């Protein structure tokens, strides 16, 4: 029941927040996220994580960003796991060709299965700095709290489908403190996963991102392609 209470609360909260964007100009864009990830199990409890992602924007014509992640994951049991990950980001901007960013994120994941249906929840606490060595404001630290809820259905031994919703709460951003303690971004995604074998998975999905309560409102429609290896 707690999963459903959290889901209803976040959907309602984000919907009420997004009502403000009806009077503002909204920019639309299409993009693509390409993700390659590795997971190496050290033992039954600990695993090492590596991810490389390449994103496109402006209707697939321009590079948006690339990032590399390194982290460690701890599985408490089959239902609870947590991870600590460092991400280095290279983001291309309109006014500045390249912005270098560094992020530390702590995830806690919960999941529960009901036959072929699985329910999962992930909370992510992230802090990030932008252009630490090249900007006078590079020491500003941004804090966000992100909540993601998903459903997964096992079609057969090879195929599964999933849907999810994610909501981001801005805890503290020195550049725009007027938006602190408010939800300002939501994502909805649907996708298919194919298990190539016991160690490899391929996934494809479609993601819609909506922003509200910020200066520049953007709706993004994203094609997601992911290849994962676990060993």
**What is the rounded distance between the termini?**
35 Å
In round numbers, the mean pLDDT is 89
Radius of gyration: 18 Å
Q: Stretches where pLDDT falls below 50 for ≥5 residues?
A: 13-23
Written as H for each helix and E for each strand, in order along the chain, the element string is HEEEEEEEEEEE
Q: What's the count of strands?
A: 11
Q: Give me the secondary-structure category.
A: mainly beta
Explain the overall architecture.
This protein is mainly beta and 231 residues long. The chain is built from one helix and eleven strands; from the N terminus they run H-E-E-E-E-E-E-E-E-E-E-E. The protein has one helix at 2-18; strands at residues 26-41, 46-57, 62-75, 80-91, 99-114, 117-130, 142-154, 159-172, 182-195, 200-211, 217-230. A hairpin with a 2-residue loop joins strand 5 and strand 6.
Layout of secondary structure:
Blueprint: H1 2-18, E1 26-41, E2 46-57, E3 62-75, E4 80-91, E5 99-114, E6 117-130, E7 142-154, E8 159-172, E9 182-195, E10 200-211, E11 217-230
Parallel strand pairs: 1-11
Antiparallel strand pairs: 1-2, 2-3, 3-4, 4-5, 5-6, 6-7, 7-8, 8-9, 9-10, 10-11
Features:
eleven-stranded mixed beta barrel; 7% helix; mainly beta; 231 residues
Summed up:
By secondary structure, the protein is mainly beta. It is built from one helix and eleven strands. 7% of the residues lie in helices and 65% in strands.
């Amino acid at each position: 029941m707690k999963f459903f209470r959290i889901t209803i609360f976040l959907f309602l909260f984000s919907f009420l927040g997004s009502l403000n964007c009806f009077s503002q100009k909204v920019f639309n864009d299409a993009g693509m996220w390409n993700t390659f990830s590795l997971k190496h199990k050290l033992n039954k409890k600990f695993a090492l994580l590596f991810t490389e992602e390449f994103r496109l924007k402006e209707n697939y014509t321009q590079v948006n960003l690339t990032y590399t992640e390194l982290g460690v994951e701890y599985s408490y049991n089959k239902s609870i796991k947590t991870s600590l990950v460092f991400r280095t980001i290279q983001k291309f901007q309109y006014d500045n060709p390249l912005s270098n960013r560094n992020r530390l994120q702590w995830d806690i994941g919960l999941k529960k299965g009901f036959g072929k249906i699985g329910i999962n929840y992930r909370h992510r606490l992230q802090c990030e700095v932008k252009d630490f060595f090249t900007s006078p404001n590079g020491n500003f630290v941004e804090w966000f709290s992100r909540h993601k809820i998903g459903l997964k259905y096992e079609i057969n031994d090879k195929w599964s489908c999933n849907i999810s919703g994610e909501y981001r709460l801005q805890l503290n951003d020195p550049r725009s403190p007027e938006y602190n303690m408010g939800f300002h971004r939501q994502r909805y995604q649907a996708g298919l996963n194919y298990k190539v074998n016991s160690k490899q998975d391929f996934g494809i999905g479609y993601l819609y991102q909506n922003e509200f309560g910020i200066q520049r409102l953007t709706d993004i429609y994203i094609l997601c392609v992911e290849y994962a290896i676990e060993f």
